[in-house]
Amino acid sequence: MSLVGSLYVSTTSPPTQKPIYLECSLSLRSGTPLKHDLLASQLGGDDSISELPSDLYFPVSSSMLFEISIPDAKIEWNDRRGRRYVFDCDDSPADMQAFRGKVVAALFEAAKGVPSAEASDAELREVLDSVDEEAAAKRLSAVGKKAEEEKEDPMRMLPGDLVRVESDMFRHDGAKGLFTLMRADVVAVVAADSVEVEGGGSERVFLCRVFDKNCKKVFEQEICNEMQAQFFSSQQSVVWLMEVEGDAGKGSSAICLSLKFKSEPDFSKFRNQFSVCLYEVNNKDMAYKDLKDYDQQYLVGHNVDDAMEVEEEEEKDVDDVEDDLDEAKEGAGRGNYGAPEEINDQLAVAFKNDRSFITRGTKMGVFKASEKGMDFQTAVDFKDKKGRLFHPSQMMLHEEDRRLLLRDPNDETKIMLMDLERGEVVEEYGGSSSAFTTPVKSIGRTTKYANMTGERTFTGLSDRKLMHFDPRDPNVVVNQKEYAASSRVGLSQFTATGAGHYAVAGRNGDIRLFDQIGKNAKSALPGLGDDILGLDVTDDGHYVLATTATYLLLIDTHVKGEVKDGFSKSITKQRAPPKKLQLRPQDLAKHRITSVSFTPAHFNAGSSLEKAIVTSTGPFIITWNLRKVKAGATDAYVIREYADRVVADEFAYDNDRIVVTLPNDVTLNTMYEKKGGRRSSVGGGRKSTGYVG
Description:
Largest sheet: 8 strands, mixed
Strand content: 35-45%
Helix content: 10-25%
Number of helices: 8
Radius of gyration: 30 Å
């Protein structure tokens, strides 16, 4: 239905109403389910007083501050810029009442994300009160109609609110290493709203809002990964990062804020609702309410900072031992290879011998570790069997680290084998002229350390297939698992355990665990919605490590009391929530890191139990103490800064050395343990950071 009348825009200085359309219709339009626009359309020819188009769209949300007065035949609302519009209605009170009912339904659906038909009478009444003229007049201080004796209750749930709890607000003081009180007795809110999107229409967003005890908004921030929010049950607090604009020419910087909640129930309510909202921000295709109960518990649980089950041999002295890294050193330089304008972009560290291989354009540099760092040995051209130079899209050490498998960047169906002793490509598999025509987006090993053996077979991944390759077979592919074309999986990364089991990630963050190629997955683990950029697994398959742009996930594949893991038995309904590893917001602020983009993370490699994780972002290399992470300290990391962006990093085999590749340099760092003391650049906020004020 639609109403007919005149549209004005209100101004406060001077107080007046400027006509927009002398005759127009007002209606609600639904472009997509649960998303609505208020549409004002000019009628009767070009009688508009303004330069505006003949149609105006306003995404429906609680921030519009609707006010509907049936006795005065007026409807008022705000646009996103805070301008107040007034519609003088020519229709009957009955028509206005019917229209008000549609507005109430649209507001409910925008706020809750569910059909209004599922709303209770009490929920609809609450929304109706918010658009009623008298109730709105009491709420809007800008209108000047709020009586002093009728002050609003700061804990009253408003349309769009999902949770509202009491807390104190703090800001981190980097110099003191403490959170200092900014404002006591604030109200923290997680709310849903709708915003306009480019090209018309609206999009549902979630907001973190803080109000003082007089209901004045202190700040508002859209919930997203870039907040780097972390929850700490021991302090009943959340810590996050807010980017702020600096002075002219200085760019932006970040400040670290925290809310400390008044009670454990309030902390849990806020944490759980925040987790749900962040999931829905990153998962446009799957609403949280549509997930199975066990999937909901798994996804919300990533923000619960409890300890994992730690192996007995690891429990000794876990708190006593601190990890540290050497200071960043200058390395071997770029070596005498590659054009000056080209940069290093891929790294492969041999496990059978002390060599590291780095791609730079159509050349590969070979480096050896020494007491001083990394020494350049030689350079090799990447040439196919026809002598054409190419820059491989991926390289992987193979057959006792004497050979390299290379993916052809110009033909995704072709894989080449380079003999490192001869420095040339000796075999090619697949290609447009062969029977194998499946584009391969990634290659991998049949077992975690297969490159240390003479194993000739290897594995590969396409958008829908996990494949087993045998170069000796005419068909090349000897086994595969294919997903239906209708599947939303979109495979992106995979890795193998020491026993030849496989973890495979989809673009939406889902991870599937296989005991072998060709069969269905034993376990399916839902993702948080972010693309997985890298995947690693411990040799025994106990832990899977997934890398996204802004965080890592450590996933325990074992069920307490069970012998088998998720690769050989389904743990879909019994799994423990993953551990989410992030840099502390206070460290991000300290190092002026306004954007995090992790390189694929790896466990340390070797014959003993894994004990560390390495990754990097920008010029910073970060190592986590795996034993402490499993014991609950997800911030047990060391961070070091280099002079340039870190391109890639990887542990040497059975060694604490880390090969670090920069755009024009290759260097070594060493992770070592020390007893007692605190390290200057290490996380550990639960133990070292307090609140004052």
